[in-house]
Structure formats: structure tokens, C-alpha cells
């Protein structure tokens, strides 16, 4: 079978703010959960300027390592149509947060568990922004997994300096910092997920 | 009334020359390159380092979030019914299917869309284009795909609008789309255009897709069968998500036969 040619990406543009963010988008942890951690950081461009029109999506396993997720990240009130946030019970594994005027974002979640035996846990991030014609994937590893990450064969080609861009920094109990640098010195490592095997030439549509 | 001073910057001719230059560079032909000089906002926002390929068959990114009936309301797919009155503009439906590269429908997944109003103005404070806001149009909708991957929205045709990429820069009319697959790495945010728009050749965002056939896949088709008498004009637009769906790897798996429309 020849794979179908896919639809190309286009930028999210600057005006997604009334559409994509939803109430409680960064509140992934069930309300009041004792193990809640806060993950936050800035998004910077290659000139060192904050990126105020980025939006970050998070996808992760739950603390037991389950990747089944659950609906209800962006529940809507069927009466008014307004967003009403998660139900405070289910762990959906998905979050979405726009950066603020200072390029800052924050999410409250539970630390992911290993998604299979021996796996190093991480949160997967997709970064969208004006100026990005195609979104970027990166990962957040918590500092307690730094040693295991260094042994992860899928990221073995990285120098320790580059690998460090995937590590959140512990600021205090349950508060972790993860900055994203789109370009330049300390540029964040971004990831790609190629097919295996790579598809042959696409059919022209 | 005073007129706006034109922004300083490159002329359309200079942008055209950059588009032609980028056209000859070697890019992956389907997704736009993240470094695309004619789109000036990309300058400081594209990584200089190539992405690191991850070939872990158990990667978290081969799974993805799920959505359900609590995440949408029955009115969310109709952008003309979100306010007390009817929005101004040409009422249209946009419908199609979301498929993976094997041609299989992406079922029960979230599709979101947002757009400018008929005058080319977004309901966003930072949009300073001097076109009227429409109190009866916000321009945001969402729905879940059906068993066959189908989606449908009722909205109005958005207007073209100026932007400050260069002097006299205008975006062709477009609708922003956000789509989820079964795997997070199939995530797609893109824009749908309308057939025959005279602004296509001038627009660096669309032209960033350097392959002509790939660009065509961003353009909806007018479909008379989907027009509703005395009511709305129908456009058809199918979306094919890139990226390995988890099941694409399953040994011995065969894609479902393509469904006949």
C-alpha cells in the first residue's frame, strides 16, 4: 500500500487565544490531589525575547504509567456551552496552556509513571506559536530521572549539554521549571518520530 | 478619517523573490520548513538544530489524548448559532473526513476550528485590522469525528485580511483547523483555504508549502451536492494526518479498505 499524502501543517498564527485555550487547561491533576506538581517555564525566541503567542500541549502517562487517558479535558456545560473544566476526578493526561504576555506558562499535574517496564517517565510537549509553520515536539524529564535519561538509547546521540535541555529543574518541593528556547544558545532539543520504514515517495494528489 | 501609514518593510516584489528562492532550496516537500525567510515571524522562532529522530516503538507520543461527549456541546459545530442574532456573511458548511495515511478513518477525535469574520477580523484584541467586529460571530467551533472520520461545521466564509509581514501583505481567506489523531505525534494544526483565491501566489504562509500538490491539499473543493437550497454553500475538505499511528506498526496489520464516498 502506498501511504496517502498527508495534509501539510500551517502556523497556528497569533489569534488562537479565543479558541484553543480552555478553562482549567493546565489543571491536569485531579483537584486537590496531594501529589500535584507544578511545571512552569518561559518560551524564548532566538533573540532571547519571550514568546507571548505560543500554546503548549502536554500528553503524559498517569502515575501508574497508564497511557489510556480519559475524555473530559475540556468539558462544556451543555446548558450554556461554556467551558467548565475537568470533573476533578478523572486524570485525562492531556493539558493545554497558552503563554502569557511574558512568555510564561504553568501546568499542575501528577508525575507520570513508567509507561512500560524499565521506561524512563516523561511528559510529551507539543509547542505551537506564531512564526512556527510546523509545531515542535519536546519532552520534560523530571530531575530524579536524570541518570536513567542519560542511559536512554533513544536519546543516546545527544551530548550531556543538549540532553540537559530536556530536564526540568527542581525549584522547590513539587515545583519544577522547564524553559523552552526555540532557537540559539541552549536551544531546546526537539524530537521527530519517523516512520519505520520510511514511506516511499508520496503519491501526488 | 486618517489613513494608516504603511508599515516599513519589504515590498511584495521582495517577498516574491524570497518565495522563488525558497522554492529552489531543498525542503521536505510536504510540511513547510520551519525556517522560511518570506514568513518573517519564522526568523527567530525556528530551531537551528535538526530534530532528533526517536524510533522507540513504545514512545508515549505513539499514544494520545482522547475526547468524548462531555468535551463538546451539540451547538459547537455551528458557528452561526452562538449568539442571539445571525452573523453577517456568506453561510457555508465545511465538511469532510479525517483519515490516517493508511486511509483509515480517525474516529471520535476532536476537530477544532477558528477563523476571522466575514470582514476579515478576528474576535481578538490584538487584531487591529480596521474592519468591523460582528457581535453575532465569535468564530470558534469544535466537534468529534464520526465512525467514518467525518466532521461538519456550519459557519460563514471568512474575509481576507491585511497583516504586517511586508508592505501590502494580505492573507487569503482561510479557516484554522486543529486535529488530533490516535497518536500525539499525528497532531496537526493547519489552515484550509478556498478555491480560486487570487491571493494564493502572494501569501508566504501558504507558499511555505513548497510542493504544489501539497499546497492543493490545503484548498477545499466547492461541492454543489453539499450546498443546501436557500441556505448554504458546501465545501468539502478531507484531512490526512501524518505520523505513525500506533497501529501502523502492527505486524501483519492491513489498512481497512478505502471506503467509497
Assembly of the depicted chains: heterodimer
- Strand segment tally of chain B: 12
Total number of strands of chain A = 10
The CATH topology of chain A corresponds to Protocatechuate 3,4-Dioxygenase, subunit A
Give the biggest beta sheet of chain A. Answer: 5 strands, mixed
Family (chain A): Belongs to the intradiol ring-cleavage dioxygenase family.
Keywords (chain A): Dioxygenase, Oxidoreductase
InterPro entries (chain A): Intradiol_dOase_C, Intradiol_dOase_core, Intradiol_RC_Dioxygenase, Protocat_dOase_a
Protein name (chain A): Protocatechuate 3,4-dioxygenase subunit alpha
Question: What is the structure about, briefly put?
Answer:
Chain A has a single domain, classed as Protocatechuate 3,4-Dioxygenase, subunit A, CATH 2.60.130.10. Helices cover 4% and strands 24% of the residues of chain A. Chain A is built from 2 helices and 10 strands; from the N terminus they run ββββββααββββ.
Question: Could you explain the architecture of this structure?
Answer:
The complex is a heterodimer of chains A (205) and B (261). Chain A has helices at 146-150, 160-163; strands at 37-44, 54-60, 94-98, 104-109, 123-129, 136-140, 169-172, 175-177, 180-181, 191-192. Chain A has 205 residues and is mainly beta. In chain A, strands 1, 4, 7, 8 and 9 form a 5-stranded mixed beta sheet that branches. In chain A, a hairpin with a 2-residue loop joins strand 7 (169-172) and strand 8. The longest helix of chain A has 5 residues, at 146-150. Chain A is globular and about 55 Å long. Chain B is mainly beta and 261 residues long. In chain B, the strands form 3 sheets. In chain B, strands 2, 5, 10, 11 and 12 form a 5-stranded mixed beta sheet that branches. A 4-stranded antiparallel beta sheet of chain B has the order 4-3-8-9, with no helix packed on it. The longest helix of chain B is centred in the N-terminal third of the chain and has 13 residues, at 12-24. Mean pLDDT of chain B is 90; it is low at 246-261. Strand 10 of chain A pairs parallel with strand 1 of chain B, so a sheet runs across the interface. Chain B: InterPro entries: Intradiol_dOase_C, Intradiol_dOase_core, Intradiol_RC_Dioxygenase, PCDO_beta_N, Protocat_dOase_b.
Amino acid at each position: 500500500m502506498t501511504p496517502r499524502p498527508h495534509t501539510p501543517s500551517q502556523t497556528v498564527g497569533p489569534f488562537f487565544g479565543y479558541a484553543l485555550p480552555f478553562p482549567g487547561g493546565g489543571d491536569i491533576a485531579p483537584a486537590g490531589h496531594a501529589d500535584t506538581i507544578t511545571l512552569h517555564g518561559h518560551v524564548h525566541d532566538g533573540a532571547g525575547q519571550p514568546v507571548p503567542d505560543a500554546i503548549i500541549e502536554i500528553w503524559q502517562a498517569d502515575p501508574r504509567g497508564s497511557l489510556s487517558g480519559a475524555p473530559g479535558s475540556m468539558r462544556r456545560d451543555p446548558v450554556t456551552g461554556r467551558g467548565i473544566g475537568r470533573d476533578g476526578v478523572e486524570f485525562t493526561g492531556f493539558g493545554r496552556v497558552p503563554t502569557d504576555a511574558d512568555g510564561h506558562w504553568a501546568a499542575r499535574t501528577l508525575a507520570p509513571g513508567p509507561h512500560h517496564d524499565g521506561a524512563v517517565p516523561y511528559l510529551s510537549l507539543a509547542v505551537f506559536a506564531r512564526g512556527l509553520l510546523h509545531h515542535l515536539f519536546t519532552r520534560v524529564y523530571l530531575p530524579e530521572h536524570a541518570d536513567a535519561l542519560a542511559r536512554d538509547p533513544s536519546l543516546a546521540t545527544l551530548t550531556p549539554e543538549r540532553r540537559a535541555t530536556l530536564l526540568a529543574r527542581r525549584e522547590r518541593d513539587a515545583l519544577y521549571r522547564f524553559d523552552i528556547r526555540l532557537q540559539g544558545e541552549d536551544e531546546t532539543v526537539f524530537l521527530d518520530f519517523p516512520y519505520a520504514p520510511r514511506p516511499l515517495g508520496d503519491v501526488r494528489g | 478619517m486618517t489613513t494608516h501609514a504603511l508599515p516599513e518593510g519589504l515590498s511584495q516584489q521582495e517577498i516574491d523573490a524570497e518565495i522563488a528562492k525558497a522554492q529552489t532550496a531543498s525542503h521536505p516537500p510536504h510540511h513547510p520548513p520551519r525556517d522560511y525567510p518570506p514568513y518573517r515571524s519564522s526568523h527567530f522562532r525556528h530551531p537551528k538544530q535538526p530534530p532528533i529522530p526517536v524510533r522507540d516503538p513504545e514512545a508515549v507520543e505513539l499514544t494520545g489524548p482522547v475526547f468524548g461527549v462531555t468535551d463538546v456541546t451539540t451547538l459547537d459545530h455551528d458557528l452561526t448559532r452562538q449568539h442571539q442574532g445571525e452573523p453577517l456573511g456568506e453561510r457555508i458548511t465545511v465538511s469532510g473526513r479525517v483519515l490516517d495515511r493508511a486511509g483509515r478513518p480517525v474516529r471520535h477525535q476532536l476537530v477544532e476550528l477558528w477563523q476571522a469574520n466575514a470582514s476579515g477580523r478576528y474576535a481578538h484584541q490584538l487584531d487591529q485590522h480596521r474592519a468591523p467586529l460582528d457581535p453575532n460571530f465569535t468564530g470558534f467551533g469544535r466537534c468529534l469525528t464520526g465512525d467514518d472520520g467525518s466532521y461538519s461545521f456550519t459557519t460563514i466564509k471568512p474575509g481576507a485580511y491585511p497583516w504586517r509581514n511586508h508592505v501590502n501583505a494580505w492573507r487569503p481567506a482561510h479557516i484554522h483547523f486543529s486535529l488530533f489523531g490516535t497518536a500525539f505525534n499525528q497532531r496537526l494544526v493547519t489552515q484550509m483555504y478556498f478555491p480560486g483565491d487570487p491571493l494564493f501566489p502572494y501569501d508566504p504562509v501558504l507558499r511555505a508549502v513548497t510542493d504544489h500538490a501539497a499546497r492543493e491539499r490545503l484548498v477545499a473543493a466547492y461541492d454543489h451536492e453539499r450546498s443546501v437550497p436557500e441556505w448554504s454553500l458546501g465545501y468539502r475538505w478531507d484531512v490526512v494526518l501524518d505520523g505513525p499511528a500506533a497501529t501502523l506498526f502492527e505486524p501483519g496489520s492491513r489498512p481497512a479498505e478505502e471506503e467509497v464516498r
